[in-house]
Amino acid sequence: MAAEASRNTWRRLRKNKGALFGMGIILLSVLTALFAYFISPDGTPDANRMIVEIGGQKPGFKQQFLQLPKSPVPPKVSFFQRLLRGQEDQFHFTPISSYTTTGDSLIIQQYIDEGVTERVAYSIHTPGWKVSGQTFHLGTDKYGRDILSRLLVGVRVSLSVGLVTVLISLSIGVLLGALAGYFRGKVDDAIMWFINVIWSIPTLLLVFAITLMLGKGFWQVFIAIGLTMWVNVARIIRGQVMSVREMEYVEAARALGYVHGRILFRHVLPNVMGPVTVVAASNFASAIVIEAGLSFLGVGVQPPQPSWGLMIKENYNFIITNNPMLALAPGFAIMLLVLAFNMLGNGLRDALEVRG
């Protein structure tokens, strides 16, 4: 019976083009997050290759580089280490306008700024040197880092904060909501008092307080957001459990002498998780927006780790100049990912026939 219900839900979900679009964007984002360091033009840890001479360039900017081996050369890492943290550059990147070889000399015109170059000579026998070119499809930030690379690596932060937030909010919300709805009475009164206290505090203010208490950092912001988003889940679970606990199969379980824990977790909760799935998708989207806001304000993810909110903060002053894409690109990325989760949530609501 459960398998048939799942098939019917999937059949209804497939007919919703908006939900399928959202699922496609989310799947693409997950794959991008997993293989970000392999597909990014800058595969260094946190996509943090700084070349200050080419800072603030427009999308489509092309540049030649003289690559000279570092000394000592950073060791190559394993596939899994590179998958998780990237590979440190093994070369120094020097931007050049042109180069020639004359006898035993390599003569370059080192790029200093627009219209400014400097003539530098190297021995042509310098081991490992090479000249390469790169196109910065979304331009560079003020530190000369590739915006596209930081955008691709930054999707990890957005998906991670959404996932951790949903896990924390579901764990707390489902437990408290189920206890309040099932036992009612004084247990319900106490839990609802606590829920109303948390509900009365503005979410952003509560996130600020928890973040400042735990400190700034990658994991701290995840926990802070997760601890503020369980209220909706608890209220929904409470209402659902209150209606389900009066069903015949729950009464039959009580008559058979089953303990409250078994009735609650084996018979009641599995039948009320449909609305929670919809709320989880909504919380995922909200967490992405809150994290971006916190990073923009400087209390979220800290540099040099790429976060879309932090990228907007670092480049928002370019909006009123001739290179607004530096701030608009991460803004569009946030908008697209949040839209995908909201459309998926709406599709799940219709497919599961959840009543608002």
UniProtKB/TrEMBL annotation:
One term under GO cellular component: plasma membrane
Occurrences of domain ABC transmembrane type-1 (ranges): 155-345
Membrane topology (UniProt): Multi-pass membrane protein
Annotated source species: Pseudobacter ginsenosidimutans
Bilayer-spanning residue ranges: 20-40, 159-183, 190-212, 218-237, 272-301, 325-345
Protein name: Peptide/nickel transport system permease protein
GO biological process terms held by the UniProt record: transmembrane transport
Cell compartment(s), UniProt: Cell membrane
PANTHER family membership: D,D-DIPEPTIDE TRANSPORT SYSTEM PERMEASE PROTEIN DDPC-RELATED (PTHR43386:SF1), OLIGOPEPTIDE TRANSPORT SYSTEM PERMEASE PROTEIN APPC (PTHR43386)
Top-level taxon in the UniProt lineage: Bacteria
Protein family membership: Belongs to the binding-protein-dependent transport system permease family.
A Pfam family of this chain: BPD_transp_1
